[in-house]
Design goal:
20 strands, Rossmann fold, 508 residues, alpha/beta, eleven-stranded mixed sheet, 3 domains, DHBP synthase
Length: 508
Amino acid sequence: MKTIIKKVNKEHPEADIICQAGEILKKGGLVAFPTETVYGLGANALDEEAAMKTYAAKGRPSDNPLIVHIADMEDLPKIVTEIPEAAKKVAEKYWPGPLTMIFQKSDLVPHGTTGGLDTVAVRMPDHPIARDLILAGGGYISAPSANTSGRPSPTTAQHVEEDLTGKIDMIVDGGPVDIGVESSILDVTVDPPMILRPGAITKEMFESVVGTVAVDHTLIKPDSKEVPKAPGMKYRHYAPKAQLTVVEGDTDAVVNYINERTAEHVANGMRAGIIATAETMEQYQAGDVKCIGTRADERTIAAGLFGVLREFDSDGVHVIYSEAFQEEGIGSAIMNRLEKAAGHLRISASAVVKQQRYRRVIFVSNTDSYIGPMAAELLRNKELEQEYVVDCSGLVVLFPEPVNPKAEAIMKSAGMTLEGHVAKQFDSESLQPDTLILTVDESTKKKMISEYENTENVYTLSEFAGEGEEIPDPYGKPLTAYGECFEVLKRLIDQLEEKLNSFAKGEE
C-alpha cells in the first residue's frame, strides 16, 4: 500500500484534501490526522471492518477499545444510551477539547470499536483539521494514536510516517500538535465520575465543575491486577526501544545519581540518554542529554515528551534516565506516560543501594532471537527493588536477525512486545563483576565457561532461580510450543524477581 501524504494549513484546511481524506474514511480506509493532543489514526467508527484494519495497522490488541471522535454535540445521543448530568456540565465546559468521556454505548456502535465493551469512549477534539475531517468522514471517526502499539505517541506527521507508512491510506500533515499528551478520560457511567487517564484536563479542573471526582486506582497502583476500563491503559504504552528509568528525589541527588550511572554505562561502551529540563541541562556531564522543557511551564514538558523518546530511538541509546515531575496538574499526565514508558521502573535517588550485588542482567542464548529476548522483556516488566540494566545476546549471531514472529505473538498476547529487537553477538567485555549472566540452558553455560574467562557470574536461569525446571526449546514448533516456553519462563522470572529483591533487602 502506498500512503498518501498531504500537508494541510491548520487554520484554513484545504477543502479538496479534507474531502479526499473523508472519502477514504467513508470507504473503510485509514487516515492519520492531527488533533490538539497527538496524531490520531482515523477510521469509520461505525464500521467493524474498519476497526479491525485499525488494530492490524497498529499491531494493537483487539480488546483495547478505540475512542470515537465527533464534531457536533448533536451527534452524541445517537451513539450513547444516556448522557448523565455530570457529563453535560463537563462537556459544556471542556468540549471541544482534550477530553474523552465514557458512556454506555448504543447499538449503533459495533463491539469491534469498543473492544467488546458495552461502553464507548467519546471525544470532541478542538482542532480545525480534525473537526473538518470528522464531518467529511461521516461524523463518527475512531482515532487511537497513530503509532505502532506500544511506541511513543506521535506528535508530528513524521512520527506517523516512521511507524505506519505503507500500512495506512493517508497522512494529513497539519504540523506539530499543541498539547503532546493524550486526552483526559473521565468515566461518567459511575458516581462520582472517575478519571481513567490523566491529561490536560486535571482532577482539579473536573472538580470545579462537578464536585468530587474519583481516580481509578489502577493508575495509582501500577501492580494492580484489575483490568483498566479506558482505551490505551491495559497494555504497556509509549515505550522507547531502550530501557527507561524514572528517578525521583531531591534535584541534586537525582542529578548526581544519573551522572553516576551514565558514567558507568559510558565506561562499559554503552550509550545513555538523559531526559533533562532547562533548569538542569547544564548539570549533566556525559551521555545524550535532551531538554524536554522547563519546570516553570510543565505544558512544555508534556509537549516535548514523546518527541524526545522518539529521538532517543533514532540515536540508538541503550538506556535512558529521566527526572521525575510533580504529580499535580498536568504533571500527573506527564508522570503517567513516563511510568508506562518505563514499565513502572521508578526509583528514589536517595534510596538507591549503591553497593548492590549486580547492576546488569544479561540473558544469553544461542541465536538471541526468541527465548533470551522473551526472558529479558519479562524481567523488565517486574517490580524490582533495585535498578538493573537488562539485556540479552547470543553466542552464534551471524547477522542482525529480527525477533522470531511466534515469540513476538506470544509476548503481545501478554501485553508486552519484542518489537525492534535485533539479535546481537555476545561481547566478552560484558563479563564484569557487576554483571549477572543467565543462560537459557546448560549447554550454553558450558560453552561460555569453555570459551571465556571471568565466568564466575555465569549461571543457567533455572539454576540461579533455584528451580530444576528446564526451558523447553520451541524452535521449529507450533505457536502453542512458544506459549509453553513462555509459561516456564514466566515462572522462572517470578523466582528471579524474588531472588534479586532479596539481595536488595540484605536477605542473602
